[in-house]
Amino acid sequence: MSRSYRSDLRARQARSTRWSVVEAAAALFVARGYDRTTLDAVAEESGVSRRTVVNAVGGKAALLKLAWDWTLVGDDEPTPMADRPDVVAIRTSRDPEESLRLWARVVTETGSRAAALGRVLVAAADADDEAAALLATAETQRLEGARAFAQHLASLDALAVPVDRAAEAFWALSSGAVHRSLVIDRGWSTEEFAVWLEAQAAASTRPTPSVPR
Question: Which stretches of 33-162 are DSSP H helices?
């Protein structure tokens, strides 16, 4: 019992340290940018040594990846996005309108959490190969999620366009750039954005009118 307690305590302490380090790194990335954030600065901000930062998480690329992953889901639990209750609710809904509304809410909430760090990731990808690889992976995963949503609507007979076409539209609509442009840059409320997003997603399930020649 004593060994088990000590092991659990160490695990909780390690998790707490990792959380503090990643939280500090995320704040510095947003405030200073990826290039200007150093491991020493992260260590100072989180109140630990540089060695502890490296042992707890790794280098700057690892810090950015973990910060990004946690920002997307909102915590450090190991549950994948696809298994989160809000996403499961979309997948199990049998009502197309409800599915579109739930999807728009999830995209809006995720965008709100990830807006600031997303801008850092895009900027970092222009100059850093590891950041570029992280961004490419994130985009691939987002497209996979969009395709899964399109397939879900197709299973409800709520899709009048090919699955790939709808998936590409949902992928574009769920882009962090769209959220940043309307909510952050133009001052839309998250409620306004969610309603607009739902309407655009619904329109994307229907064929586009033919362009006159």
Answer: 39-46, 50-56, 60-73, 85-92, 96-125, 129-155
